[in-house]
Amino acid sequence: MSFAVRLLSYALPLVFLPWIPARAQQIEVGTSLFCDTWAEAEKIVAFYDGDMQAAIDRVNTEDHNRSACAAADVAYVLGPKVGIARTKDATFHIVPILVVGIVTPVGVRSVTPSKYFSLVQVDERSA
C-alpha cells in the first residue's frame, strides 16, 4: 500500500470528528456493543440478564437481521447520552457511537465511519 493511500486511510475518519461535540472527540479502542437503531439498543437491555451475547442473539433473531446488533473490537467515538434503559439490576445510558476502525490481528484498520447506538452501564452505587 502506498504511503499516500495509507495516510488517507488514517486521516479520513478525522474528517468526521468536527460533527461530534467537543467533549466526545476522543477515539476509544475496545470491545463495544453496537446496534443499528436506538430501539434495538433498548431491546438489548430488555433482554439482558447478565449475558450480553444472549441478548444480542435474541434481538437479532426477533428482528430477522443477523447483524442488527453485535459486539466487536472497534475504534469508535462515543457521543452524548440520548436515553436511559434499565433492568431490575442495571442501568444503561444509550449513546450514539461513530465506528471509525476495526481491530485486526495486525492493528486497527480504519473503515468508513458509521453511526450506531451503544450502551454504557451506569454505576449507581451511592457514595
Characterise this structure.
The protein is of the alpha+beta class. Helix 2 (38-47) packs across helix 3 (52-62). The protein has helices at residues 3-15, 38-47, 52-62; strands spanning 27-35, 69-78, 83-86, 91-104, 107-122. Strands 1, 2, 3, 4 and 5 form a five-stranded antiparallel β-sheet that branches. It has one domain. It is 27% helix and 42% strand. The model is unreliable at 1-9 (pLDDT under 50).
Summarize the structure.
By secondary structure, the protein is of the alpha+beta class. About 25% of the residues lie in helices and about 40% in strands.
Entry keywords:
single chain, 127 residues, alpha+beta, five-stranded antiparallel sheet, 3 helices, 5 strands, 42% strand, globular, disordered N terminus
What is the strand and helix layout of this fold?
Elements: H1 3-15, E1 27-35, H2 38-47, H3 52-62, E2 69-78, E3 83-86, E4 91-104, E5 107-122
Antiparallel strand pairs: 1-2, 2-4, 3-4, 4-5
Helix pairs in contact: 2-3
Supply Rg.
16 Å
Q: What overall form do the CA principal axes indicate? A: globular
- Structural class call reads alpha+beta
Low-pLDDT sequence parts:
1-9
Q: How many helical elements?
A: 3
| Helix proportion | 25-40%
Number of strands: 5
Instruction: Tell me the major beta sheet.
Output: 5 strands, antiparallel
